[in-house]
UniProtKB/TrEMBL annotation:
Signal peptide extent: none
Mycothiol-dependent maleylpyruvate isomerase metal-binding domain: residues covered: 16-157
GO MF, one example: metal ion binding
Lineage: superkingdom: Bacteria
Protein's UniProt name: Uncharacterized protein (TIGR03083 family)
Coiled-coil region list: none
Species this chain originates from: Actinomadura luteofluorescens
Length: 276
């Protein structure tokens, strides 16, 4: 589906990202495991527990076909995820750091094998709702979303313990690329004439430039060629934190250069690449 742009295959990166995460948390002191993170109410131990939950949930659902927890009456998807994530994190507080490390190391290759078995152009197991709500996602976007999830949680741990890393362009660039696929959804409420374009420029070694165009009554990804009706430029650290709400929209706008159609630039700087 061209609305999402060209395919991104992140599957070779999962083992490297996981190795960086395991090396990081294996060296943490007990005090560092208890450091607060940007995730409200969660310390480092809780974030690692959440990553373990993601591993288990995807293996259970996508590999084993297990439905998992049931939605409560009138529960929205964000509310369901918030509840079930919190339930697992609370339970994982009974697990030692060493056991969680061993589980991540054990389950990670099984998750890699799951992704390797997938046809990237087939329908996703789980739709990426921050990219589109009215059409099915391709498998590559679902898998890419999972990679961004793991990478971002690793950065949250690194921030909490003041340990930089895992921002090498080959590890970070696909995260930014996947996040940029949320541009059509971010602009969905803004009707414009056919062939109106908007561009996002992300500065830094892992950055790039992405375009969206209004065609056939909706916004779609396109090559960022020529002049755009709206242009937003920000650095790579600002972009990933904006997309995951590690900073506010206002903070992102203060760090950005915005030109052209003000409604479109405002919408671009409201891009969200998580379910909230």
């Amino acid at each position: 589906m061209m609305i999402f742009g060209p395919t991104v295959d992140v599957r070779p990166l999962f083992p490297r990202e996981r190795r960086a995460m395991i090396d990081l948390i294996s060296a943490l002191s007990p005090a560092e495991w208890a450091m607060p993170t940007v995730c409200p109410g969660w310390d480092v131990h809780d974030v690692v527990g959440h990553v373990l939950n993601d591993y288990m949930r995807r293996l259970s659902g996508s590999r084993d076909g297990y439905g998992g927890a049931i939605f409560a009456d009138d529960e929205t998807l964000p509310a369901y995820l918030a509840r079930t994530n919190e339930e697992f994190v609370r339970a994982s507080r009974q697990l030692s750091p060493q056991l969680m490390i061993e589980l991540l190391d054990h389950l990670g290759p099984r998750l890699d094998a799951l992704w390797a078995s997938r046809d990237l152009q087939s329908a996703a197991d789980l739709n990426v709702f921050w990219a589109a709500t009215d059409i099915d996602s391709p498998a590559w976007l679902d898998i890419g979303r999972e990679y961004t999830e793991f990478w971002v949680h690793q950065q949250q741990v690194r921030d909490a313990v003041s340990m930089p890393g895992a921002t090498e362009p080959d590890l970070m660039a696909p995260v930014l690329d996947i996040f940029a696929r949320g541009l059509p959804h971010a602009l969905r409420m803004h009707d414009r004439p056919e062939n109106t374009t908007a561009h996002l420029e992300v500065l830094g070694a892992a950055g790039g430039r992405w375009g969206v165009v209004r065609q056939d009554g909706r916004w779609q990804m396109t090559e960022p060629l020529g002049e755009a009706t709206a242009l937003v430029s920000m650095d790579q650290d600002t972009f990933w934190r904006l997309a995951t709400r590690g900073i506010t929209e206002d903070e992102a706008r203060q760090r950005s250069t915005m030109t052209g159609d003000a409604d479109l630039t405002t919408a671009i700087t409201a891009l969200l690449a998580v379910i909230a």
